[in-house]
Structure formats: structure tokens, C-alpha cells
Amino acid sequence: MYRFLMAALLVCMGGALQAQQPQQEDARTFAKDIQQPGVQVFDVRTAEEYNTGHLPKALQADYTNKPEFNERVKYLDKQKPVYIYCLSGGRSSKAAQWMRENGFTKVVELENGVNAWKQAGLQLEGVNTKKTQLTMEAYNKGIAKGVVLTDVGAEWCPPCKQLEPVLAAFLKSHQQVKLMKVDGGNDTDVMKAVGAKGLPTLIVYKNGREVWRKQGVATAEELAAAVK
Q1: How confident is the model over 36-71, as pLDDT tens digits?
Q2: Which of 75, 140, 168, 189 has the largest CB neighbor count within 10 A?
């Protein structure tokens, strides 16, 4: 019995060690695998780097900005695969190891990062697509009348993605509320002017006067109470 228990323990330990081993893929394999349903693509470069071009459907958090990284990574699903990358592989390797040690079941690294992606002749999204910024004049006009909910967010922000269905359901049941979108990756002047220091930031205005604010993911109940 003792030998049986020891053997079982060694098998379990071996499986745990195996699960913690770094897993890397070359660019073409990585490109194929991120097309699978349920995959989370995670860019751990800076927002500035992300905006020069990124992988399809990639979420972003700057690994070198620990408060930002720790906040955004909470909104990834630990039970679903995470395919992670940076510019050359250094930051993503460290981020992947942290994630494995903190309960993520499958983290796959892009070997040599975006540099290898480009060398393989693969295309990045978001290259040369700089948009015109929302002006403060347009923003102030948009919030001047009625009840307005400002959503300062971005499509690449993990908590913003989690907030999307909450906002959709809330706006459907509160049709008197107007939504004002501010792109946190583009509308930096407005973001600075309204004092939005993180993503997402939600602000409720009534006839141009701010009455409520929250940084982070809000519940439908919080939003409903804010617009009463």
C-alpha cells in the first residue's frame, strides 16, 4: 500500500511539474492556434507599442506597469487558454510564468514575440489606423442634456470586455440614458480632461453635471442607482 501511495504521489507531482513547464510556439503555429474558439490573446507590451500594430483580437496590459497588469489580468478566465506575447519574448515569458504560478491552466508564449510574427510574413492589425480624437467641444455637447453615461474604455482592455454585456443590458432597460463612448486608447485629451486615470471609467451626468463615477467594472444595480 505504501509503495502504491508513493507511486501515485510521484505521478501527481510529475503532472503538476509538467503543467508548469513553459510552452512556446513558433509564429505560424501560434497564428493557427489563436483562431480556436475560447482562446484569449494577451499582449503584455505598452499601450503605445500595442497601437503600432497587434495580433488579432488581442487584449492588452503592460507587464512593466504592475498595478495595471495585476488589475487587468484578474478579468481573464483562468480555465481558458491564454496565448501571450510581447515584442521579443522577454516580458511575455515573465508574465506567463507568473500566470502559471497563479492558477492559469494553459499559457502559451509566442516564441520571439512580434519580431518573429513579422519575420514570418504575418500581418498585424491596427497598423496606420490612427483615428481623429474626440474633441472636448464634442464631448461637452454630448453630455449637456439629459442623463448621459460616459464609458471611457477600449476594446483591448480585459475589464472593459467584461463590462460590455453589463452596459448592453443596462442601456436596453434604461432607454432614457444616452451613452457617450470615449476611446481610452485614442481620445487621450478627453480622458485627461475628465480625470479618467484607468480603464474602464464610468461617469454619469445629469444635464452636464457629474453625479456619479466609478473606475472599474460596475454592476447593473450600481448603474441603475446612479441614474435615479
Answers
A1: 999 999 999 999 999 999 999 999 999 999 999 999
A2: 75
pLDDT band of residue 17 (cuts 50, 70, 90) is: very low
What is the C-alpha separation between 61 and 125, in angstroms, rounded? Answer: 17
DSSP the chain: -HHHHHHHHHHHHHHHHHHHS-EEE-HHHHHHHTTSTT-EEEE-S-HHHHTT-B-TTEEE--TTSHHHHHHHHTTS-TTS-EEEE-SSSHHHHHHHHHHHHTT-S-EEEETTHHHHHHHTTPPPBSTT-PPPPPPHHHHHHHTSSSEEEEEEE-TT-HHHHHHHHHHHHHHHH-TTEEEEEEETTT-HHHHHHTT--SSSEEEEEETTEEEEEEESPPPHHHHHHHT-
Q: Show me where the domains of the chain are located.
A: 23-119, 136-226
Task: Check if CATH label 3.40.250.10 holds for domain 23-119.
Answer: yes
Q: What is the mean pLDDT of residues 113-133?
A: 90
| pTM score, whole prediction | 0.84
Distance, CA of 160 to CA of 165 (rounded, Å): 10
Q: What is the mean pLDDT of the chain?
A: 92
